[in-house]
Design goal:
Copper Amine Oxidase, Chain A, domain 1, Copper amine oxidase-like protein, Cu_amine_oxidase-like_N, Immunoglobulin-like, PKD_dom_sf, Ig-like_fold, 44% strand, mainly beta, 7-stranded mixed sheet, signal
């Protein structure tokens, strides 16, 4: 039997792909066979992992990495397809050949790759999967011939042709991939570790590795390149894989520093704090304690500032200021004259109750409001709410995930009619997922008001009869314990069924319509569809002209404001929209000169936003209103009567009702104001003394 592979004695010593290109070599099979010497299978299988195989049509001589060998059969062209002997190319690639008598398949196996061919078939199996070969497998002189292209595709080789010359490039080197675990590396401090991501495309085991530039701890700051090479069980090495890291110098803590204009102040005198803290990186948090804008009792006060940099280091500083008993401004003078929009100011909780209440008219607009706040706490996938609505609709969705898995919200619009229709996405905003319920509601309300100020740019979708589409996009899943708030406005000229669906993360809202069940009402929060979702508040008087007065908004008693009534479309039950959540209020007022407009919560905490003269005002700038003893400063008129516009939507997660106060701003210049304030304080002190005396007398009488 003649040997499978032969190597030309002259070629082995002198052949170079670059020095002696394939096209320039002699191709007389007989002449080269006469010079050839037999090489062992072990020699022929010496692959380097980045291998090149060269063939010539109508020749049985081919080259493996520049070493010439022969095959039992010439490379043949049949019906436009190039064929090679399976045994020769498989062995050259290092595959082991076997024959399955049961399936009558010739099987070539190498690592985790198995390729099976069957005579007279136009398909092959690659790891059990049937793949077309591009030509029928046939036998020639007892040798199985397979399409060269099929072999290239099965092995992941790159096939190139240049006239009658063909070459296959096959890269099976292992990959030495790794990552550095530490995102931030500090010189002399951080222990550097790596994550192994090395692999072999053919499944061979990684048995050895070499590192360059890797240190456990880098002593000096700078950039370093780490290089890694790996060897697999065949003995083939990878190319070096490199990662460049930046080693930072050790962190210097920030320096906390602030100044005031002076160290001694009068009662009610404005105190201005200048933060002069600095850091070699970035300061990410400033925490003040005691930095009141003014002080209203004589004494010594300590002001503290703590700063934190972007690497977690902190620094503190504290200073003291002295407040004398001389009065510059009363508390009322100071806050009503110096507060800025969105500032939180202290207020007597009974003040709002002591001023007259202004009655007003209400005009409603044709806007449907859907409030889906029940159940507020999501326990798992369910149909949350569904209703068929035509025209303009606003959804107010506020949900907290109390399950142990991330949950997603899907608002599905379905055309249940017999003709095509459209649904327009007019406005959309969301906030969260957030840890705090009030923060989610505040931010979502603020973002929705920004949408109201922006030009309307509807996004229209056409729905064929029976077709559904998801309207909520780009909203993350709600992780466990977090809250998500959504405002969305839509329009359709004909009825559309809107369905709010809750699924697990990456769920299909439309597919879930037929599989999920309706959630139960939690018995506490609001779920329903309401008409009149936009309202205009009408006041026919000059506010603040005769003294302080107020408007009551969202009161449960409905003495002043009127609550929306609607229907829970799930149960058919009539529902009252307590607090009027999801309703947009618009109002225009005429206010007297030197009038301050304040917002005072009466039902608990409130955090949201208002539009005042086309400007967003946060409630409040750095926090929320925590109760009746706090107010948000909205506006201050100047020396003339003014007309102001105010709009808002109730912030989910906050409490109603609200009192909108109109308070005259006291003068800063009139001495009589200070005298009156002093006299008022003396009278109040005298009244307290009298009350204490009367209480004492009453206690004595009770004891007797």
């Amino acid at each position: 039997m003649k040997p499978l592979f032969k190597v030309l004695a002259a070629s082995v010593a002198t052949l170079s792909i670059t020095a002696a290109p394939l096209a320039n070599l002699p191709y007389s099979s007989q002449a080269q066979a006469a010079q050839a010497q037999t090489v062992s299978t072990q020699q022929q299988a010496q692959l380097i992992g980045k291998d090149r195989f060269q063939f010539t049509r109508n020749s049985n001589i081919f080259y493996v990495n520049g070493v010439a060998s022969t095959s039992d059969e010439n490379v043949a062209v049949v019906k436009g397809a190039t064929y090679v002997q399976l045994k020769s190319i498989a062995t050259a690639y290092g595959f082991k050949l076997s024959y399955n008598s049961a399936t009558k398949e010739s099987v070539a196996a190498y690592g985790n790759l198995k390729i099976s061919f069957k005579q007279n078939e136009s398909t092959m199996k690659v790891n059990g999967k049937s793949v077309k070969t591009g030509g029928k497998v046939f036998s020639q002189n007892g040798n199985l011939m397979v399409p060269l292209r099929a072999w290239a595709d099965a092995t992941g080789s790159t096939l190139q042709a240049n006239g009658i010359h063909l070459s296959l490039s096959w890269n099976t080197q292992p990959k030495a991939v790794f990552t550095v675990n530490e995102k931030q590396i500090i010189a002399g401090e951080t222990t550097v570790t790596t994550k192994d991501q090395a692999s072999s495309s053919l499944g061979f085991k990684i048995v050895e590795e070499k590192w360059e530039g890797l240190e456990k701890v880098y002593s000096e700051p700078g950039q370093y390149t780490i290089s890694r090479s790996v060897k697999d069980s065949r003995g083939i090495w990878s190319e070096p894989y490199q990662v460049t890291i930046t080693v930072e110098k050790p962190n210097t803590p920030p320096v906390a520093e602030f100044t005031t204009e002076k160290s001694t102040y009068k009662i009610g005198e404005p105190v201005y704090y200048t933060n002069k803290s600095h850091d070699d990186g970035k300061i990410v948090r400033n925490t003040w304690t005691g930095n009141e804008p003014a002080f209203f009792k004589a004494g010594t006060y300590t002001i503290k500032l703590e700063v934190q940099d972007d690497r977690g280091a902190t620094s503190q500083v504290e200073k003291q200021i002295t407040v004398t008993d001389e009065v510059m401004y009363t508390k009322e003078q100071f806050y009503l004259n110096f507060a800025s929009q969105g500032d939180k100011i202290p207020i007597d909780s009974s003040f709002s109750l002591s001023v007259p209440t202004v009655t007003y008219g209400i005009e409603s607009e044709d806007m449907t409001a859907v409030r889906t706040n029940s159940p507020e706490q999501l326990q798992g996938p369910a149909i949350d709410y569904s209703d068929s609505i035509a025209g303009a609709v606003r959804f107010n969705i506020h949900k907290q995930n109390i399950s142990d898995k991330p949950l997603e919200l899907h608002l599905v619009a379905t055309n249940e009619g017999d003709t095509a229709t459209t649904v327009s996405k007019n406005r959309f905003s969301f906030a969260g997922p957030a840890t705090y319920v009030s923060q989610s509601g505040k931010t979502a309300a603020s973002r929705f008001l920004e949408e109201l100020l922006a030009p309307l740019e509807p996004e229209s979708i056409t729905l064929q009869p029976g077709e559904s589409v998801e309207l909520i996009t780009g909203v993350p899943a709600i992780s466990a314990g977090k809250t998500l708030t959504i405002f969305g406005e839509y329009y359709s000229p004909s009825p559309i069924r809107y369905t709010l669906v809750v699924t697990e993360k990456n769920g299909d809202g439309i597919a879930s319509l037929d599989t999920l069940t309706q959630s139960e009402h939690d018995g506490k929060h609001i779920r329903g569809t309401f008409s009149g979702g936009n309202r205009e508040i009408i006041v026919d008087k000059l506010l603040g002209e005769t003294g302080a007065e107020k408007l009551v908004l969202g009161d449960k008693t409905q003495v002043y404001d009127k609550l929306l009534t609607g229907v829970d479309a799930v149960t058919g039950e009539e529902i009252i929209n307590y607090g009027n959540g999801g309703t947009v209020y618009n109002m225009t007022f005429n206010i007297a000169p030197h009038t301050a407009v304040l917002l005072n919560p009466r039902g608990g905490h409130y955090g949201g936003a208002f539009i005042v003269n086309e400007k967003i005002v946060q409630i409040t700038n750095n926090s929320i209103l925590k109760g009746q003893e706090e107010a948000a400063f909205l506006y201050r008129s100047g020396n003339f009567q003014e007309s102001i516009s105010i709009s808002y939507v109730v912030a989910p997660g906050s409490n109603m009702p609200l009192h909108l106060l109109f308070v005259p701003v006291p003068s800063l210049n009139a001495e009589e104001d200070n005298a009156a304030a002093t006299n008022e304080a003396e009278q109040q002190e005298q009244a307290e003394q009298t009350a204490n005396q009367e209480q004492a007398v009453g206690q004595e009488q009770t004891q007797q």
